[in-house]
Design brief:
The chain is of the alpha+beta class. It is built from seven helices and 17 strands. Strands 1, 2, 3, 4, 5, 6, 7, 8 and 9 form a nine-stranded mixed β-sheet that branches. Strands 12-11-10-14-13 form a five-stranded antiparallel β-sheet, with no helix packed on it. It has a three-stranded antiparallel β-sheet with strand order 15-16-17, with no helix packed on it.
Length: 272
């Protein structure tokens, strides 16, 4: 019972880590500030981004609060340690938005959190967040150029322009090293399976989980099975031929002969 209770608390904490940045980049400051401890301390990437207390943080970021909202995705959070009522977590994520028709804002961020568990809930005591400085914050691009490069953000922005279904909710995957990946369905390109170890591929990397085919299909029912050991997101399929599927990033996925007609017909229905 203690283990189950611990796992439930860890899952809640990971969800809180994600909510911090989703609420902030949605410019939902009411939700964001409710996550904070009264003694909250924030350190950012720049000299002026140093705040002691909620009021000072809100004052420093007041201009940013009026900017465009941004999408948060490719999230990965891990629990580093905890002792009594203090928990330390860390993670990384991407955030992006269109500034205008030609300018796309993109950033990769890393964060360290210190949480205090008090009165039955987690409160954020400290947040240290920095940007990966080797990634440009913005750039002028054309849609055609973006399509040719199959860059991660372009595929994602194409997706978010379409209405989302009720099933498009975040889900958690725990990798072999204990890292927790907080993902949206569209962030998965494909999954390859060898025995009970599955490699989950996104356009920004991959990680391994100990799941069999049936378990993966239950967690990710949106994936299409093309082979006894391959699952693919239909969103990223650009071509199907005997007996191969090609993805937007050029990856070729095998299609089993017994499954070819079924896969072909299913893709044809989705294209209509």
């Amino acid at each position: 019972m203690k283990i189950a209770k611990k796992n439930k608390k860890e899952k809640l904490l990971i969800e809180k880590c994600s909510l911090v940045f989703h609420s902030y980049f949605d410019r939902d400051m009411d939700t964001f500030t409710q996550l904070l401890d009264k003694n909250f301390v924030w350190i950012g990437s720049y000299e002026f981004q140093f705040a002691q207390g909620i009021d000072e943080f809100l004052n420093i970021t007041k201009e940013e609060q009026n900017e465009l909202s941004a999408e948060v995705y490719d999230e990965e959070y891990r629990i580093l340690s905890h002792e009594q009522n203090t928990w330390i977590t860390y993670g990384r994520f991407c955030a992006s938005a269109w500034k205008d028709q030609n300018t796309f804002l993109y950033t990769r961020q890393r964060a360290t959190y210190v949480w205090k568990y008090t009165e039955g809930e987690f409160k954020l005591l400290h947040l240290h967040c920095t940007m990966a400085r080797d990634v440009p914050l913005e750039g002028e691009i054309t849609v055609d150029a973006a399509r040719k490069t199959h860059s991660r953000w372009y595929d994602y922005m194409l997706y978010v322009e379409n209405p989302r279904s009720e099933t498009d909710a975040h889900f958690l995957l725990k990798d072999e090293e204990g890292g927790l990946h907080y993902l949206l369905p569209n962030e998965i390109f494909y999954v390859s399976i060898s025995y009970r170890v599955a490699t989950v591929h996104t356009s920004t990397g991959s990680f391994c989980v100990r799941k069999n085919l049936a378990q993966l299909q239950e967690i990710m029912p949106f994936l299409l099975q093309t082979h006894k050991s391959w699952l693919v997101h239909p969103l990223y399929i650009t071509e199907i031929k005997r007996y191969t599927i090609t993805l937007v990033n050029g990856t070729e996925i095998p299609v089993g002969k017994p499954r070819y007609n079924e896969v072909y017909q299913q893709l044809a229905r989705q294209k209509k």
